[in-house]
Amino acid sequence: MAQPTPHRYSLQIVVAVTFVAIIALILGGLTWFNHRSMAQLAHREAQERFTDLARQIRDEARDQLASAHIFLKTIGETASPSQPNDDMGRLLVTLLRTLQETTPSVLGVLAGWPDGSLVLSQRLVNDAVAPGASYEIVISTPDSGSGQFLRRSIFLNAQGEVIRRNAPVLSDYDARKRIWYQMAAESRRPVTPPPYRFATFPEIGVTVAQRSAINPGVVFGIDVLLSDLDDVLSRMRTHPRQELALFTVDGELAAHPDGRKYRQGNTPTGPHGLPLMSALPSPLLRAIAQAYQQDGRAGSRTIHTGSEDYLVRYEPGLADISMVTAIAIPQSAIMGAANDMARRLLTMGFLALLIALPIVALAARKITRPLQTLTSAVSRIVAFQGDGARPPPSHITEIDALSGAVGGLQLAMNNFMRYVPKQIVRGIVRDGVQPSLGGVRQQTTVVFSDIANFTGIAEQLPPEALTGLVSRYFAVISSALVDSGATIDKFIGDSVMAFWNAPDPQPDHVARACNGVLNAAQRLEELNATFRSEGLPELHTRFGVHTGEAVIGHVGSFDRLSYTVLGHTVNIASRLEALNKQFGTMILASGAVRDGAGDGFIFRDVGLAGVRGASEPVAACELVGRAGQAQAPDAGSGALASGISGHVNPDVVARPDASRPAGAPV
């Protein structure tokens, strides 16, 4: 199963995206870290503010009760519970008037007895009941006849003078059943029951109580209004959306900036006559109460109401009162500065990214451009178009090293192809298969060439001059043959061996060989003209051409291979080259070549030739030229062979040497 082709991307794009991603991650990380740090700091500051506010609320409530505690202790230790009720009432009024000077929130002073009797002195909010009255003394005593209590009132003016007395009426008020009496009777210390709504005054308050030191069955109490805490909470609001509330553990609202509005409305009340927070019109107050009722713990938590989250802190209201202080503020208000800073950082980061983009693009191009050059160089090497030049140097060490390696590869490949046929090298690179020993039998056309009288020429020239002469000669011969698709097998002294139809198949390999030989002969004529002009000896070449089956492949040892052709076909081509001297020809081909070349060439039969190693003579013919080209008067052989032996008699050329029987081995 073929593997799916992976997606490929431009290195320049990858580098640019990587740089941008790194910059974005750094900016995003710094923004996140800064926002997180500022958020932690903002929450810590909010918690500190919450703690401070809760402390202030406790202090305000404690201040309102502090004077009451002092007076209670004084009353409990000095007041005689056995004095007449009227006298006790006047005493309590005197204490109330004194308390009002220091604690305006005190509403009344009272005393309760073990038989349920009550003496209460309280200030009046208005004189609607008794015009001119500022205080009222309420005396409640048991009625033995009815089992209830007789209640009578005495009204006093601001100076404490009696201005009116009301006749006794039946009442079911029993001091023993009041929570303040029950708690104080069981404790030696002052007690403060949960806040409640006064029956005679439409406000919230508490009754601070303590039993008498003289008669433990008698309990003295002071009614203290807590409505002033509404104003305290309102003053402590530092944010328009901040919420402050003081409520009982049962969920009744005791104090709130809008406490009076909630207490005077139609909101359902709890057991103490206070509005239930769960029934208030404010979703936030309902959520605050609900969150506390779930676990009843102090501390901070986040609640969600509407479309916003709130941070809420719960603190005990007073150590001796079962109340809770709740402080809530929107998360957006806490995180305002942090969010603003995050937005500024993101904006600055975005601008920095925009500025960095062209720089990143330029840097990516600087990095990838040398790699693109190297890629092109490698592609040219693979396509065998490399010139061996080293790619330009780079300031980046790794790229410069790679550039040197590619330059070395170009040089090695170019030099390698000088020793190994280019077609072989291309096949190895294309197939990606390591060559191995062995060959295949197939049709091929083989050409041998040889320089006439090379020994004599070599004796006349110095080695250096001879080497230059032969190199120029081989360049002309090999280029002509390679241009026709030949594979140069080897150079043997002054001889060249080449073959066609391998390693790449060539259906017209015979015609290609004929064209290559004719082109080589033509180029040699031009080269000899140059040699003559330079005063150098001319080099006349004879060619032998044959086609047939041969074994083509790699031969040699495991550490050195040669791609070559082996077999009788090679032997015949070599012998035909040698017969040129005997027949006075320049290009001698076999009949198989004549039959396989097609109609595009002109051949001239010269007879049968016996070839050493062959069981039958081989038909030999001279390759004169291409069809349609003008021929010399002597049928063409003189035109090609004139440089070898001068004018040759056609009769001699047309038949073998008369001194040797036809078909005799050469």
TrEMBL record:
KW Transmembrane (keyword) present: yes
HAMP domain sequence ranges: 365-418
Entries under Pfam families matching the protein: Guanylate_cyc
InterPro entries per the UniProt record, alphabetical: A/G_cyclase, Adenylyl/Guanylyl_Cyclase_3/4, HAMP_dom, Nucleotide_cyclase
Keyword Membrane: yes
Transmembrane segments: 12-33, 345-364
Domain Guanylate cyclase: 445-577
Protein name stated in the entry: Adenylate/guanylate cyclase domain-containing protein
